[in-house]
Amino acid sequence: MEIRELIEHSRQARERAYVPYSKFAVGAAVELADGEIVKGCNIENAAYPLCLCAERTAIFKAVSEGKTEIKRIAVIADTAGPVSPCGSCRQVMAEFCRPDTPVFLANLKGVYQETSVGELLPFSFTKEDLQG
Ligand SMILES: O=c1ccn([C@H]2C[C@H](O)[C@@H](CO)O2)c(=O)[nH]1
Ligand SMILES: [Zn+2]
Predict the structure, then answer these.
(1) Helix, strand or coil for residue 9?
(2) Which residue ranges does the record assign to the CMP/dCMP-type deaminase domain (predicted)?
(3) Mean pLDDT, the chain, integer
(4) What is the CATH number of domain 3-123?
(5) Is the pTM of this model over 0.95?
(6) How remote is the CA of residue 17 from the centroid of ligand 2, in Å?
(7) 3-state class of 32 per DSSP?
């Protein structure tokens, strides 16, 4: 799949964002190893700390359906430059992706930047650390 197509899926996912509080809509698209796309948007709550980011919505949707082979991720928002995922989403990406998993950070103007999960969260805490 073309990168632009994956980003377009994230743009479509963003349209479903539930953001009455921040008004900051974000979309994410996870491409699985078999080519399937799992989309996610951010979903807010009157109890603000419960707000869930688009990236985690998409990843949790995939994992909850047994789809754990994540190939690539795209994220989009109406930002000046490429959107930057929050720390919690970086940690969740580190749990379910490899350090070299590509992440495409985009905005609505057509600007995008390719990075990777390892680049977004170097020196991350992982399940290996739990082994002592
Ligand atoms: O990469 C990001 C950054 C922020 N948000 C959401 C969380 C909240 O709903 C709103 C404002 O922080 O944007 C995402 O979904 N992804
Ligand atoms: Zn986040």
Answers:
(1) helix
(2) 1-128
(3) 98
(4) 3.40.140.10
(5) yes
(6) 13
(7) strand
